[in-house]
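>> Question from a student workshop board

For tomorrow's exercise we were told to take the sequence and the ligand below, predict the bound structure, and bring the output to class. My setup keeps failing. Could a helper post the expected result so I can at least see what it should look like? The ligand is magnesium ion.
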Amino acid sequence: MDYRKRPLLCVIAFVILLAACKQDPSRAEFALGTVCSVTLFNEGNDRIYKEIFSRFREIDNLMSVNIAASEINRVNAAAGTSPVQVHGDIFTVIDRALYFAELSGGAFDPTVGPLVSLWGISGDNPRVPSPAEIDEIMPLVNWRDVEIDRVTRSVFLKRRGMALDLGAIAKGFAADEAAAIIRDSKIKRAIIDIGGNILVLGEKKNKSPWTIGIQNPNESRGVYIGILRITEPTAKPRSGEGYRPVQTVVTSGVYERHFEADGIVYHHLLSPSDGYPARNSLLSVTIIAACSMDADALSTAAFVMGYEKGRALIESLEGTEAIFVFEDKSIRKTEGVDFVLSDEKYRLVRD
Ligand code: ADP
Ligand code: MG
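>> Workshop helper replied:
Here is what the output should look like for this input. Compare the format with yours to find the bug.
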């Protein structure tokens, strides 16, 4: 090694590094119980990144049951006692959660809090509760016992011991909020990834479709069974200057959080009808739509409903598509999905 060349090599390495940074300007932070990563293309802007990540933290502080002083915990602590006036953001999410609870016939239910605690799903020591324990808390799981007042923006859980859990919808809301911040800026395209809740904004430079890997539910994160191509927005684009379409791809699957006891795998998508992890032949449900909050709720709802009912619900909604991955490695999808299978152990079935 000629030491005189060292400074020159350093400069070259620095330039290469700079070029690499320019191409891949992603930032990632831990929030909302997961890794949130944002990629602002071309015009990666420090101020916008800061604004987005502080918005994520703000949403977390309102909606996380794992943050002691969160608003959601305030509402839960007042269950059976009094209504609690809440911040507009959390009110919006609770209101929408109740809408999807009704739409899904209760398969999606934001009052699963006591069940989530009983199973210890979000903690380090999950366990299988006894049938008696489940029976005891089931009366507390019922979205109809949530009273909201749109005028005072207050939320009342009617029974003592009830608890809201927004884990199945809050990440989607956060992705939409990040998209709103980006839309108010000059940034033309971006990718937001909140623990696998993906949102793409704008069009790629060469107008080629966005491609998004669909997680293999049997493998660790980042191993894909195929590629989803987003050729055109499923929502009708509003015309007008500066319009950038948004598409979101959200998956609920058994692989996210689970534990094994006596040879049985228990996952975190709970059926409010019997208090156990939803048992059907599904491994994952992916929703493709324009609103991430809705897609997040729908991926959980469709999973818990199971294939037949879940598919019927998705097909009843305009601009909403789905991919269902089954335990027997078959995959079914709705009409509008452009999906290219890459893992030959799986098969795409039409029916
Ligand atoms: P993830 O958070 O892993 O991306 P989901 O969006 O499907 O997956 O949310 C799952 C979380 O939602 C669970 O960890 C739990 O907190 C909550 N949850 C579980 N079952 C239900 C249900 N039936 N309805 C609403 N929320 C649920
Ligand atoms: Mg969800």
